[in-house]
Design goal:
With 532 residues, the chain is an alpha/beta fold. It is built from 13 helices and 34 strands.
Length: 532
Amino acid sequence: MSKIMSATDAIALIPDGCTLGVTGTGPALEPDLLLATLEQRFLTEGRPGALSLFLPMLPGDRKGEGGLNSFAHNGMMRQVMGASFSRARHPAFLDIMATGEVEGYITGMGTMIQILTATGSGKPGVVTKVGLGTFIDPRHGGGAMNAASVSPPVRLIEIEGEEMLFYPAQKIDVALIRGTTADENGYVSFEEETNTLGAVEMALACKASGGTVIVQVKRVARAGSLDPRTVRIPGPLIDAIVVHPAQTQLSPMMADPAHGWNPFLAGALKRPLDDIRPLPLSAEKALLRRAALELREGDVINLGAGVATRLPIVALEEGILDRVTFTNEHGIFGGLMATAVGGSFVPAFNADAIMDSVFQFNFYDGGGLDVTFLGIGQVDGSGNLNVSRFGAEVNGPGGFINITSKTRRIVFCGTLTSGGLRSRIDEGRLRIEQEGRFGKFVPRVEEVTFNAAEARARGQEVLYVTDRAVFRLGETGPELIEIAPGIDLDRDIRSRVGFELAVSPRLSVMAEALFREPLLGLASSLPKGDRA
């Protein structure tokens, strides 16, 4: 029997009350036609309802519509388990979650991918140290999103005297995934996609659960005609194929309008980079330059969301892009993140490798990174960091907790304040023209996404690089070690920090070269790293 069917017929295979897994993140690999058809069926028939969603990533990048907003209807969801959410992209979905009528649990992205692997291979679950001491630890809430969430999917256990977190395997009844081409037997290739994003792990977990795997593709090819080297999901894992000829690789801004995809982002071609313009001189660029001083020859680097995603643009300008390896949690190794041209940081131009998600997080959890550069939400007097919850806004950690658990050097990057902050650089000196309304260095973080005491116990080196100062994680918390030229310690730093400021006796002024136009000269002064 043919596996090819309409979106309507495929979505009719989803029963009420099932556990539904969905892949894709941001603009990449979103099964948009399937989600739109699913939403329309619920609006017209009231089915399927009471769904339990398993969401390792954040599908959908269209503000206010699509993606998770497809589920934002009373009675459609019963429970949600996910790694990250976005008020900007999915306001209706988060409004539903805020009512407390739907159970919701947050878990690290890497752990969720590993749960799929455990389910797919018949293992009882995932045992990990990732997340100990953070808000996903059951002693600190177990990742509960609201008051209705009283049964977190995680337990604290002990193995040979060491504390661990245990996540049971999760049954997946139906999986919605996406690729580029399927042959008539269901073999799926990803030749136009920028990432693979756990699609095969989701399909494997679903089939091992006795479930139904539905794939959305751009085209169907004759059986046996695909290059087996491009096939990422074998046919026996696929139950239904839905063809969406208008499927685009990414959002229209990032895709070639004539073909719906950009070969430079899929690894099919290498893009010339000489037209990538350097960042203009600003406080942000100075911050990124200071962060770049932490790079070493041969470093394998992770970049998290936020200002740090533009670090490769500085590396390109300085002529060291090919002397380090930038990665992200979505499988990218090497190349230049698409943020260089205003796009998402999920894909990259000229990647050296695009790996499956389970590999990427196993690599991270195994200590494969030398250094990571991540954003700053809130920092408290102990050095703890929050990037996952701000008041009623629940963002989740994405891959943040996995990344910070084993990386030897951690550099958090962000401004000291936010909300209307304006500054300028004048003759090598930083001037704050209008202070931000919100301080990021607070007495107590709202939620612990990064536990500083655990990091100290692991022997990690931690820096907090801001627009006007650099802090080091000391024995008791952040210690000020550098201050930008033109910045007053009391007026611009001490008064903006919500805890007693520890100042190093060796406090120094940040290099003035960071705040001037000429290159830093990293091409000739990049220190040797362990891999060089």
